[in-house]
Every structure is written in structure tokens, then in C-alpha cells.
Input
Amino acid sequence: MDNWDDMRVFLAVARAESLTGAAPILKMDPATLGRRITRLERSLGASLFVKSPQGYALTDLGERMRTRAAEAEAHLVLARDEGQGASSGLTGQIRIGAPDGAANFLLPQVCAAIQADNPALEIQILSLPRVVNLSRREADMAITVSPPVAGRLSVQRISDYHLHLATRVDGPAITRRADLKSQPVVGYIPDMIFDKELDYLGDLGANGVQLASNSVAVQLQMLRQSGVGIVHDFALPFAPELRRILVDDIALTRSFYLVRHISDRQSERLNTAAAAITRGLQAEVARLEKIARLTDTPVI
Output
């Protein structure tokens, strides 16, 4: 490659696997990107991508080049971080990928506090109904509910969190499992559960869901209308119409993990941000779960 700009264009298209996907990242139109890739391939005398209506797939040469280009990018990021210095506070942009439970009910408060302490910092929260792909640099770090078992990644357990069955405060009295049979179940769309830790039907003993969404936030809105469903304790303070039920009978515990690129562990800036996010999430989970326990409504 002739310069860093060529590398930046190549990496963006390789990660997005399409010109249209890379265009907003680079703030360039797809036609211009196509010309840039064609020019780059001509200068190399070889194809980097196999083009099709489905997108841009890397050739063997493209795969090898992406590995080297990503390594160079990581070194440039480290050099930039060292140049910024640690005493001036966090600066630049940090993108955090997270499942939508954490993205909706935890990260907004945590990130707002971190940004207030670091006014030159831009924080982006990427909420996706799937595992965030760090190898394609979709984010700088990710919150997950299962530790990854593959890839050059570092994994740190953040905190346990708890889930219970919930229903409307003014709904029918439910004092035993048998009472659940008369209520519609709210939960995930079964074939869109992207992590086994999100499959709660076995714990609930239900055969299926009558009101379903791939979004935790939408499920919470469904429960505000009717039905029963498994809810994060930390989400309940945002839905005062709901109460926990069968607390001693149906109780789930899951964990959040912070996942990062191995190479980013050398970045003081990202280490500082990761530590702040970890502390913030631990405190926010504890705070919101305490509120959920204190506001349990007894069934009379």
C-alpha cells in the first residue's frame, strides 16, 4: 500500500464486507470507495477482494494483508495514545458494544459520568442483537454475557447480575408456578437468541412465548401491558408498573464480561477507560438491584 489512507480504506471495506457498509465509516460515497479499491488492486497487481452482489469477500492475499494492516493500525493507535498523555484525561472516541439490556439500562448512566469527568472524550454505545465483532473493529471493547472462547481477546469478569419473573403490579395474584399457566409469557424470539445465557425458557418451565421480541427493552414494554416474563432486576426501577414474583422459586444469575483486543492492553488510554467502565457497571448494577429489592410489592 502506498500510504495510510489506502490502508484505512482497505481495512474499512474488509471489515464491513461491502462498499455501502464502509461508506458511512469513512464518510465517503460507495462509488468513490470502489474506485479506490480498484486503484489499490491495480497498484498491487493482484485482487484483494472477490466482488459479488452479496458484497466484498477477501481473497487469500486480502486476508494476509488485513492481518498486517490491522497490526499496523494497532501500533498507530498506541502511538497516538502515548502522545495524548495520561494527565490530560481521556480524549478521542471510544465505542462500546453491548447487549441491549446493558446498553439500555446501565451504560447510559455509566458513560455519562465518565464523559462528565473527561469532557474531551466521545463515547459511543453500540447495541446489537448479536455478539459484537471485535476482530472487525466494530467496537473498541464489548460487554458480553458469555466469555468468548476464540480469538486474540482478553476477558475480564465485571459483575454478576440477577433476573426474576415479573408481572404488572395490578395483575392477577401469582403465588405458585401453577398460576403461570393462565398468563401469556413474554420473552425472546426463540430462533433469534444469540447467546445460550439468554435462553430462560428452561428455567421458567415454559414451552414457548406468546409475546416475543429480540429486544429486552421491547419485552419490558410488553410486560407493562400484560403477561409474565424474566426481567433483569436492574431494569425494574425503570418500570414501576412491574413487580417481581415467585422470587424464592425462580431466580437466575448471569454475569457480564468485558472483552477487548489483546493488543489494546498496551494502551493506557483504553486501560483507563476499561477500568472506569468496569467500576461504573459494578456500582450501577448494585444500585439498581437494591432499588428493585426495596420496591418489591407484596401480594395480598
Notes: The first strand starts at residue 49 and ends at 52. The chain has a mean pLDDT of 87. Residues 4-84 form a domain with the Arc Repressor Mutant, subunit A fold (CATH 1.10.10.10). The chain is about 40% helix and 20% strand.
